[in-house]
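One record is kept unedited as follows:
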Amino acid sequence: MILPTVLANSNLIRSFAQTEKIHLSTFEHRDYMIRNISDAFKSKGFKVNIDFKYGKDEIDVVAFLDGYLFLFECKNPFHPVNDFELRNTYSHIEKGFSQIKKFKNILSDKHSLRQFLKNLNIEFELVKEIHFAVINANRALSGLQHDNIKVLHANELIGFLESGLIGIADTVYRCWEYEAFKPTDLVKFLNGEVITSDFEKSKSEIFYGYPLRSYTMAFKTYAFELDKIAILAEENYCKIAMPVIE
């Protein structure tokens, strides 16, 4: 018997899960992160396929709406609690990059693209743009980019699709261009025009060092300037009125 307090104040459950190779959000052969992402896309009218196979390859999420086709590879590693564990998240993301890059190469061939769309029951002439990204379950390395493929945080993406709202202090902003969501809003999200690059734009560099005999070990870290984030939101997003709760 183990006291609940011991479980609540320790990492026993996490350690057991890692040792037994059990993922707490993946059970009954189903990844609930992918299902939640799929549900968010469907709520906005997207045609969605998950675990879609094409030849010997497979892509986790394919979403299509109004001429815009999106392909996502999803990764669900344990949240890293230290720099050592961050390597695990990075290796998952690296694999995601390679999988997306493979699909980009496949779909760059017009005949392969036609067959891919045929398998999806999407007419070739309807597709105007194709976009790719890696979706990570935890926030670590969100915003990392390789070969124009960006890492997105799953919950951030779901929130953007479902409401498009962000809150800063007592102010709420709408990040969609209009009141109703359009696929072009998601394109801007992927490109960093809204939300996903705001932290990058509002960071400040902090240098510090440790003297070591006649040398100095120099380090650089980063901090977020919250006033800059507020200014960015004021400049780029639509401030909306929220009902007063008494």
Q: What stands out?
A: The chain has nine helices and 13 strands.
